[in-house]
Amino acid sequence: MKRILLVDASPRKNGNSEIIVDMLASDLNNEDVTVFKMRENKCNPCMACAACQNKETQMCVQKDDMTKLLPVIESCDAILVASPIYNQQITSQAKLFIERFYPFFHVEKKNASNTSKFGKKAALVCACWGSPREVTEKYAAWTVSGFSQMGAEHFKSCVFDQIPAVGDVRNREDYLQTIHELAGWLAE
Predict the structure, then answer these.
(1) SS3 of 171, please?
(2) Please, are residues 101 and 145 in contact by the beta-carbon 8 Å criterion?
(3) Which of 59, 91, 117, 168 lies deepest, with the highest CB count within 10 Å?
(4) Cβ contacts of 140 within 8 Å, gap of 6 or more
(5) All domains of the chain, ordered by start, with CATH?
(6) Parallel, antiparallel, or unpaired: how do β-strands 3-8 and 120-127 relate?
(7) CB-based contacts of 19-23 (< 8 A; 24+ apart in sequence)
């Protein structure tokens, strides 16, 4: 059984990102899945205080839900973040989530990470309308590669474009198929 973290980084309830995460969670019902919805949790930005640095295990001095999630990030086999694209970038919630990987940073260790678990899978799914697909694909691939800091070594990124309205992802058979394929990849 794989331990998988699914993160909905959309500020919008019932939006395409939440639908994607919920569909993945349903597909992965035989795995140990944690669903983390940024808008429903207290998530402070990284203060860059460096109190987390040069520690053997990941810790943060902040008392929020992101700090509580650090052991899940450390122990998971796979992580997926779903985010809308706003002004050609992932949401501020998604950026905040990624910035809180700082406790995993150690410049002198493999992949600049102090994780005890390498080989994780990481995926980023971007839902958008109107952003140039080729630009968003490059941006998504570059962004998810930064998950190496928490031990990821296998990466996927998907861009679901041309879905302007809430729930439009449900109307795209090609995207629904990609979601099912992503679930299979995360669980293998």
Answers:
(1) helix
(2) no
(3) 91
(4) 124, 126, 157, 158, 159
(5) 3-187 (3.40.50.360)
(6) unpaired
(7) 19/167, 19/169, 19/170, 20/82, 20/125, 20/127, 20/160, 20/169, 20/179, 21/80, 21/82, 23/176, 23/179
pLDDT in tens, 120-166: 999 999 999 988 999 999 999 999 999 999 999 999 999 999 998 99
**Coil, strand or helix: which one is 127?**
strand
Residue type, position 145, single letter: S
Q: Render pLDDT for 37-51 as a digit per residue (tens, 0 to 9).
A: 999 999 999 999 999
Q: How far apart are CA 114 and CA 57, in angstroms?
A: 8
Taking the CA atoms of residue 15, residue 19, residue 22 and residue 26 in that order, the dihedral angle to the nearest 10 degrees is: 170
The phi and psi torsions of 103 (rounded to 5 degrees) equal -60, -15
Distance between CA 172 and CA 155 in Å, rounded? 23
- Calculate mean pLDDT across residues 18-29: 98
**Gap between the Cα atoms of 46 and 21, Å rounded:** 24
Q: Per this entry, what is the length of the chain?
A: 188
H/E run at residue 26: helix 16-27
CA distance 148 to 124: 13
Question: 3-class SS at 121?
Answer: strand
Structure tokens at 85: 């694209």
